[in-house]
# Entry
Amino acid sequence: MPLFNSFVNAQGANTVPEITDLAERMLAGDRKALARAITIVENGLDGAETLLRVIYRKTGHAHVVGITGSPGTGKSTLVAGLTMALREKGKTVGILAFDPSSPFTGGAFLGDRVRFHENAADAGVFFRSLGSRGHAGGLSRKAGEVITLMDASGRDFILVETVGAGQSEVDIMRHAHTVVVVLMPGAGDEIQVGKAGILEIGDVYVVNKADREGADRLVAAIELELDLGEGVYDRMLDPTGHHAGLGNPPAQDRQHPAGPERQRWRPPVIKTVARDGLGILEVLEALYRHRQYLESTGAGRRQALHRARELICDAIIEKVLARIFSSPQGVTLFDTLAQAVAERLQDPYSAALQILENRFER
Amino acid sequence: MPPVDMGERGIESVLGGERPIRVLVAKPGLDSHDRGAKVIARALRDAGMEVIYSGLHRTPEEVVEAVIQEDVDVLAISLLSGAHGTLIPRIMEGLRAEGVEGVLVLAGGIIPDEDVPVLKACGVAEVFGPGSDTDAIVQFIRERAGGKHRAGDN
# Structure
């Protein structure tokens, strides 16, 4: 059943001692080990779960920054500029750059490394290119796990550059502490700014290519949108400080832009010309301030808790599917039911129940 | 490992756990023309591979570092400037010094026939000059890109 084979761990050569050794070398800073670990995890190869289990406790140090925005806005150049500035401050950096995989061939042209010259031979920088591999939302299915590896390897900052297909790229919110949304003048963004999606998720907004006409208008449009946002959320507070409903109150436990902390962080809007290195230090300063904000308010803890809940849910789903598809009985039953559902002889919900009620032998 | 027939399967093969072959297309040295490299990159992408393009004017050290970080199966070096005699051996030496194993190394661009044996002696598997059939290159890669930890794959 091709579509779900990736949930099944490979029968392969990665034994537990080999994985433990790989993990130790990776944690000690061995770049080859980190690269190999990313390959294992990205592809769900044998030992991936063991690896992640072993290193998970070492995570939590890195500041994960998502960099998102439409194609052509200069994300890659901004990432390169931020990396250089961080290196000058003695910070180590990991970069994950996502590009789209072809929906027809599965292949990809991963071209973000091209923008990345000055640090290309610096051991304090690790740059990995990844394909989206059929996943929508701006990253790939395994993005979170690859970020986990980078974090455990001891990088101070992890910059995650999304595919850049536009406003549906909200996946990054699940993985980043700080989301940077990059826009540029002349892309119709003044109207786009009012639309839901990518323009709600930013903790920092960057107007890149700010030497072009329309930059100040775009900044003003974003600031107006942010003003409007604050107005709504203020009205939603009742005198006791809890959120009153506006019909549909934001769930207190979800990391939602209308969460109680978000209204106390006003996303800065920063003009840059990344190509010339202008505005980079202001963006860096905004990243530091946002991290301070997360750590000094409840926001960071809520983010971490929300993330933990999602990780466990994802792991449950993966395990249930793996249990089904690693069993010949499971695969047979699944295929039979799929055929019945396609022919409208059965509904998918009772099919699911039927599968879940089975204990499959391997 | 037998060649993967991507024809019918496309993205399903990717979702199905047969991971794409990863290729670094590298342009070391002073070349300013990369049209050939981009033609190759496109052919490999259409054949279902993940192609990382290094960009122009990379040093041998930068190429070696990219091979390591991107954990590629194939390194395709494109050189038009005639510097293949110095740059390619330096890259191969760099890979050896870093203990990189199992990467299939190919070269292309303007490389005279008489220089090919020397390159092969230092570890280049094949040289594909201008006008090479891209299908042949794809086939060559599919048949041989397997040395590097694919034994443990699905």
